[in-house]
């Protein structure tokens, strides 16, 4: 149980275009999902907390107009990187929170490369 | 702001050796999770500890939660190359998790 999928796993896009990444909890409902960014050999950097049916909460320094988050259902959250630039190239990981212990279950990640 | 310090940051050992990774904070957590992440993949939950002083074992991995629920350790016995990866601890309180900086473990055959 507690499986989270992410799509796509890899995406290459041109500078100035937008990219949407989907995060789905496959066998449980998640009122809260998280979006992280990770640089090579570093820990996870929390970008935003996505709450079903309400606006996402962004961490300091994360541009909400650039990283659009939508959590329209209890099993799906999406992250859209708008007007992507090469510096947005990174590994993006989502997680869904489950259970009374607030454990996070992670998706497999999306490697974004902006050319 | 809750901070979670993980040490060591990098660890390279030979197969068969033992090792311990530490996760320390000045804050009290209601629970603490340990994750393992392989390159190009998402972190995988290994264990959750909840009670102060709790010890959990997962094959060759032993996890301990400090009595005051502010720190934790992960001990690996007879490490194998398959243990190679990034180990992350996360302290959770009131539904919010704080992640440590991670320990990159390399086990050489």
Summarize the structure.
Chain A has 115 residues and is mostly beta strands.
Structural account:
- The complex is a heterodimer of chains A (115) and B (109).
- Chain A has strands at 4-7, 10-13, 19-25, 32-38, 44-51, 57-58, 67-73, 76-81, 90-98, 103-106, 110-114.
- With 115 residues, chain A is mostly beta strands.
- In chain A, strands 2, 4, 5, 6, 9, 10 and 11 form a 7-stranded mixed beta sheet that branches. In chain A, strands 1-3-8-7 form a 4-stranded antiparallel beta sheet, with no helix packed on it.
- Chain A is globular and about 40 Å long.
- Chain B has 109 residues and is an all-beta fold.
- Chain B has strands at 5-7, 10-14, 19-24, 31-37, 44-49, 55-58, 61-65, 71-76, 85-93, 96-99, 103-108.
- In chain B, the strands form 2 sheets. In chain B, strands 2, 4, 5, 9, 10 and 11 form a 6-stranded mixed beta sheet that branches.
- The interface between A and B is medium-sized, with 23 and 24 residues.
Secondary structure elements and their pairing?
The complex is a heterodimer of chains A (115) and B (109).
Chain A: E1 4-7, E2 10-13, E3 19-25, E4 32-38, E5 44-51, E6 57-58, E7 67-73, E8 76-81, E9 90-98, E10 103-106, E11 110-114
Parallel strand pairs in A: 2-11
Antiparallel strand pairs in A: 1-3, 3-8, 4-5, 4-9, 5-6, 7-8, 9-10, 9-11
Chain B: E1 5-7, E2 10-14, E3 19-24, E4 31-37, E5 44-49, E6 55-58, E7 61-65, E8 71-76, E9 85-93, E10 96-99, E11 103-108
Parallel strand pairs in B: 2-11
Antiparallel strand pairs in B: 1-3, 3-8, 4-5, 4-9, 6-7, 7-8, 9-10, 9-11
Helical fraction of chain B equals under 10%
The helix/strand series of chain B, from N terminus to C terminus, equals EEEEEEEEEEE
Which structural class matches the secondary elements of chain A? mainly beta
Show unreliable segments of chain B.
none
Work out the radius of gyration of chain B.
13 Å
What is the terminal-to-terminal distance of chain B?
Answer: 40 Å
Tally the helices of chain A: what do you get? 0
Percentage of β-strand residues of chain B: over 45%
Largest interface: A-B, 23 and 24 residues
Largest sheet of chain A: 7 strands, mixed
* Order of secondary-structure elements of chain A: EEEEEEEEEEE
Instruction: Determine the number of helices of chain B (DSSP H or I, runs of at least 4 residues).
Output: 0
Structural class of chain B: mainly beta
What's the helical proportion of residues of chain A? under 10%
Q: What kind of sheet is the major sheet of chain B?
A: 6 strands, mixed
Q: Beta-strand level of the residues of chain A, as a percent range? A: over 45%
Shape of chain A: globular
Number of strands of chain B: 11
């Amino acid at each position: 149980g507690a499986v989270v999928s992410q799509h796509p796993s890899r995406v290459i896009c041109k500078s100035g275009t937008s990219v949407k990444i989907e995060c789905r909890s496959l066998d449980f409902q998640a009122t809260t999902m998280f979006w992280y960014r990770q640089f090579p050999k570093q820990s996870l950097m929390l970008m935003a907390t996505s709450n079903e049916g309400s606006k996402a909460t962004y961490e300091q320094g994360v541009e909400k107009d650039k990283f659009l988050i939508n959590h329209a259902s209890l099993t799906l959250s999406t992250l859209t990187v708008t007007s992507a630039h090469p510096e947005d190239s990174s590994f993006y990981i989502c997680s869904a929170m489950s259970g009374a212990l607030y454990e996070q279950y992670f998706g497999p990640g999306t490697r974004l490369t902006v050319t | 702001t809750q901070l979670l310090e993980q040490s060591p940051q990098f660890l390279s050992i030979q197969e068969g050796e033992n090792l311990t990774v530490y996760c320390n904070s000045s804050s009290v957590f209601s629970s603490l999770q340990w994750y393992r992440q392989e390159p190009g993949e998402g972190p995988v939950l290994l264990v959750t500890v909840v009670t102060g002083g709790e010890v959990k074992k997962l094959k060759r991995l032993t996890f301990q939660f400090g009595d005051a629920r502010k720190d934790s350790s992960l001990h690996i016995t007879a490490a194998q190359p398959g243990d190679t990866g990034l180990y992350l601890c996360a302290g959770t309180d009131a539904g919010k998790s704080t992640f440590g900086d991670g320990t990159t473990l390399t086990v050489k055959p």
